[in-house]
Amino acid sequence: MSLRSTARFVAFAAAGLIAFAAQAQDKxxxxxxxxxxxxxxxxxxxxxxxxxxxxxxIRVVAQGTGQALDMxxxxxxxxxxxxxxxxxxKFVADGFGIERRPVxxxxxxxxxxxxxxAGVKGKDVVEALKKLAASKAEFVSRGDKSGxxxxxxxxxxxxxxxxxxxxxxxxxxxxxxxxPALNIAASTNAYVLADRGTWLSFKNRADLAILVEGDKRLxxxxxxxxxxxxxxxxxxxxxxxxxxxxVVSPAGQQTIADYKIGGExxxxxxxxxx
Amino acid sequence: xSAFAESVRTAxxxxxxxxxxxxxxxVLSLQVSGAACLLAAGFGLAFGAWLSVAHFPGHRALVxxxxxxxxxxxxxxxxxxxxxxxxxxxxxSWGILFTPTAMVIAQTILVLxxxxxxxxxxxxxSLRDGGDQLRSMGARPLLCALLMLVHDRWAVLTILIAxxxxxxxxxxxxxxxxxxxxxxxxxxxxxxxxxxSKGDLPLAMALGLVLLAxxxxxxxxxxxxxxxxxxxxxxxx
Amino acid sequence: xxxxxxxxxxxxxVQALRKVSITIGAxxxxxxxxxxxxxxxxxxxxxxxxxxxxxxxxxxxxxxRQAMVFQRPFVMRLSxxxxxxxxxxxxxxxRVQWNERIAAALARVSLQGLEERPARxxxxxxxxxxxIARAWAIQPALLFLDEPTASLDPAxxxxxxALLAGFAADGITLVMSTHNLGQAKRLASRVVYLEDGxxxxxxxxxxxxxxxxxxxxxxxxxxxxx
Lengths: 274, 237, 226
Description:
Largest sheet of chain A: 10 strands, mixed
Number of helices of chain C: 8
CATH class of the largest domain in chain C: Alpha Beta
Largest interface: A-B, 38 and 31 residues
Oligomer: heterotrimer
Helix content of chain A: 40-55%
Largest sheet of chain C: 6 strands, mixed
Strand order of the largest sheet of chain C: 5-6-7-3-8-9
CATH architecture of the largest domain in chain A: 3-Layer(aba) Sandwich
Number of strands of chain C: 9
CATH topology of the largest domain in chain A: D-Maltodextrin-Binding Protein, domain 2
Radius of gyration of chain A: 22 Å
Distance between the termini of chain C: 35 Å
C-alpha cells in the first residue's frame, strides 16, 4: 500500500469514528435500575411515553439493586429506580437521595418442575420453602445481592432456615441474573424464586411452571429516588425530578398499568400507598 | 444441534432484514473497537518499537509487566476505568461515564499491551537481522526500530487485526463503563450478554454469528488490500 | 583517514580486540585477514564507529562520509528505488540529487531497470550489489566491507570484485575483511593479519605474500594457501 493511500484510508476511518462523538446532545438523564426491571420490557413501554410528554431522554443502566444504589451513591446516575425498600430507605437516610416515592409493585412467584416433587404448590411462600428445605429438592438462588436475592433470603428466614449458616441440600447459588438462574432451573429441573415479569418473557421453560403465587409477602415494591445534588452538584435534579413526579402522577401510573405481556398486567401502580 | 441451526437461520434473517437497531449496534461496535484499535496502535507501536531498542535498568521488569498485562481480564479493565471516570473518582468531572468515549478508553487500555508486546518482539527480531546495517547507514536506534515497523508492515497489520479482534469480542469492559444503555452504549457483545441473561439463547447465538460475519467482512477487505500488493511468498528471501 | 590507537573491545566475557593500533591512509585498499574469531569484523565495526571501545579513534575530516557493506545483505521490504532513497535520506543527501544518484548507483552495479522491483525478490548476488549501490550512492570517502563475497557464487563474486577494484581506482579508501587470500592478493594494496584480537602482521600486499611473513602469520599463510 503506498504511503499516500494509507494516509487517506486512515483519515477516512478516523473521520467515520469521530462522527459518533458528534451526536446531538438533547435533554437526558441517566437512571440506574435493575436487570429484572429492564428485562421485563417496562422501560421500552414507559420511557417513550415520558419522552413524548417531556422531551427528556432517559438512559437506563441496568445492573443489580446493589450496583444501582452504589451508582447513585457515587453520583454516576441522576435517579435510582429499584425494588428494595430497606436499602432504599437507608440510601435516603444516608443523604444520597432526596426522597423515596413508592411507584408500583410486581410480584415474585415460586417456579418449579410441573411434577412438583417437594409438594410446594399453593399460596403460602413460607410453607413452600419449609417443604423445600425438608425435601432436599434442587433450588437455584441468584446469590447476587439483587433485590430478588434479598427477598429470597427474607422468605428463607421466615421459614426458619438460616442460609448463611446451613444451606439446605440441593441449594445452589449461581451469582447470576434472573434469566441465567431460570435457565439453570430449566435444565436441572430445579425450583427458583423469580419475578413474574422475567418469567413471562422467559422462553426456555422446559418443564417448569408457576407453583406458588398470590402470597402478599411475594409483592415486590418499587421506589424511585432522585440523587441528592447536595452530595453531587452535577446531578440533573430538575430533569430527574420531572420523571419522579411524572411516574407517580395519574398519567405515569396509568402507563404502568397499561403494560401487559400476553394480556397479563405485570406491574401494579401504587404511588398513593405510603 | 437444532438450536444451532435455528440460530444460523435467525442470524441470516437478521442480516437480510437489516433491522435498524441491529445495524446501529453493529456500527457502534465497529466504531468503538476501531477507534480503540487505532488509538492503541498509535501508542502501542511507538512504545513497542521504543522498548525494543531502549536500554535502562528495569527494562526486563517492564517487559515482564507488559507481557503479564496481556492477560488483563476485560472486566478488570472495565472496573479500573469505571472507578477513574466515576463522578466520585479522580476524572469524574469529565462526565464521560456511560458514553461511547468511555468504552473507547477502556478498550484502548485493554489492547495496548497486546500491540506493544507483540510489536516489541517483532521489531526486536527484525533488528537482530538488519539493525546493524540500518545503524551503519546513519539511523539512530529508535529510527531503526521505526523503520522496522515499515519493513514488517504486514506483520504489524496482523497484530492490529488481533488487537481489533480482542477489542470487538470483549464484553466485560464495555458493559461496566458503558452501562449497556439501549441506543447509546449497547454494542454487539453486550447485546449478546443481555439476550443470554434473558434466556433467549438462540437469539444470543445468532447475534454472535452476526458479529463473526461482520469481523469476517472486515478481514476480507484487508485480505484484498494485501493481495493487491503481492503474495507473501512471491520471490521472497 | 582513520587512526586507531590502542583500541580494545570487549563483549561480556570475550576480549575481541586487544590494544590494536592501525592507521589507514587515504586511497589505500586494506585487506584484513585471519582465522575465525580473530577480530576482523570487530575491528571493522570499531573503525566504522559502531562499537564502544577503549582507546582512541581519530578520523580525518575527509573520512566523515563512510559506509559499510555486510556479509549478508539486509534489504528492506521496499522497492529497489525506495531502498536507495532510504540510504540517501539517512545519509543526508539533498532530495534534488536523489534521482540522479539512484540512476548512477544502479548503473554502476549493473542493476539498472530494476528500480520498481521489490528488493526482496532479487537474487542473493543482486541483493549484495544493491547493498553496494546503497553504500556507493552516498559517495563515501571510506568504505568498509565485511566478507562481502562470502555468500556469493563465483560469477557474482567476480562481479563484486570488479566493482571494488573500480571503487579503489576512483580513489575511495577501502577496508575489507576476507577469508579469501586470493581475493586479498588481487585487490588489496596492503594486508593486515589478525589473530586473537591482535595484529600480527601489517605489510604491503607484495611483501605479505612473497616471504615477508614470520611466525604465526607465515603458518597461517601456508595453511590457507595450501
